[in-house]
Amino acid sequence: MTISNEWIPIVQVRDASIATKWLGKAIEVRGWVRTRRDSKGGFSFLEINDGSSFGNLQVVAPNALANYESDVLNLSVGSSVIIKGVLKESPGEGQSFEMEATAIQVTGHADPQTYPLQKKRHTFEKLREWAHLRPRTNTFGAVTRVRNRLSYSTHQFFQDEGFFYIHTPIITASDCEGAGQMFRVTTLPLDKLPIKEGKVDSSQDFFGKPAFLTVSGQLEGEVYACAMGKIYTFGPTFRAENSNTTRHLAEFWMIEPEAAFYELPDNMALAERYLKRMIRDCLQDCAEDMEFFDKMIQPGVVETLQLVLDKPFEHMSYTKAVEVLLASGQKFEYPVHWGADLQSEHERYLTETYIKGPVILYDYPAAIKSFYMRINDDQKTVRAMDVLVPGVGEIIGGSQREERLDVLLERMAANGLKEEDYWWYLDLRRFGSVPHAGFGLGLERMVQYVTGMVNIRDVIPFPRTPGNAEF
């Protein structure tokens, strides 16, 4: 058999609205064996999956095949095959169509003695040790398809909204969040660092100054928003935070739109439309995967997503939220008081018990927010927003940016930031400054939310966490 580039994805063969055009006709599929059952009637049943859909295609392999004894009867879980045959209606339960093989080519065997993904169920923790093989499992195949749809929806949404996609640098000299938790990028020999006046001489480094992996593309995104009007970034970001929780990664993907002439209400409306677009697309286009998550991973996840889709987002000030929490009578692990950063337990109470739906909190205390957020007239709060959804709490964080040069300089000084490090950022306020706003959404957090997966390590192909940079 000669390998060509013409074959049909299994997702199409399993879709009755598409597959009927191939009924009774010769087709070709390619994929990996999930199961093999041999019948006394002189044929074998193969379940084949190529990653394009949750379900498998059943292939009937008759013993009349020339390589039936030598190849088909030796197929094991994980083996890869190219199969030609005829698509027929299936008399069995569980599938509308099946394929009767006329030729089977084995392109790669998988030794059943050493191939780790056998029929028994493995824990997600164990599967992280086999991150190169776990996409072949039901769960991680479904996670990957949902992650793909969310990514595609992101580009579709912002393109439809008139935003330009730009690529901000991965290497930067600016700390957007002011937290200092950044990975250093250097070519200096670590066993013999050049020292000048008691400090590392960064002038001898590759970039001639300290450089780091970016924690956000926002500041550079503002540059293009203040020239192109509306832009979005979608790329990897890095946080050197020594945290081993189920919600933290050292490397993750961020979506960060930024729009000139947007104020906080515009930002809130954009975030609501964006979230609803992603959820709608996943429920429509990943229905089989979502049914699996709802049944096997987090019962009720589809109903929760439908609630967010159907219900308008409430708007509530931070101050009002604190009042609600204090009056709730609930005993929280973290005390509530004005000026405190709200924790997940507080956010979930607001969405799940008080509002019973999604809510956008706004006007947070300036002391707990970043230097670039626009200060309100009360001089105590900034035009920040957090989008909270039932089940997780915060899913999006954003703000209107400070466009007034004098106020921004005061905020930077208060945060101990040097003007010379941000001279280009300040120029945006010197030359044609405009109101502008934006937000950030972590793709992995969104995948977690949509799928119900508990650990963020299980929604990214190759997780990077403290002590782990495998694969």
Description:
- The protein is α+β, with helices and mostly antiparallel strands.
- The chain folds into 2 domains: 10-108, Nucleic acid-binding proteins (OB fold (Dihydrolipoamide Acetyltransferase, E2P), Beta Barrel), CATH 2.40.50; 134-164 and 258-458, 2-Layer Sandwich (BirA Bifunctional Protein, domain 2).
- It has 13 helices and 18 strands.
- It has helices at residues 10-13, 16-19, 124-128, 138-160, 218-228, 264-285, 287-297, 301-310, 318-327, 344-354, 405-414, 423-430, 443-451, and strands at residues 26-39, 43-49, 57-62, 80-89, 97-108, 164-165, 171-172, 184-185, 195-196, 199-200, 211-213, 230-238, 251-260, 314-317, 359-365, 381-389, 393-400, 436-442.
- An 8-stranded mixed beta sheet has the order 6-12-13-18-17-16-15-14, sandwiched between helices. Strands 1-2-3-5-4 form a 5-stranded mixed beta barrel. A 3-stranded antiparallel beta sheet has the order 7-11-8, with no helix packed on it.
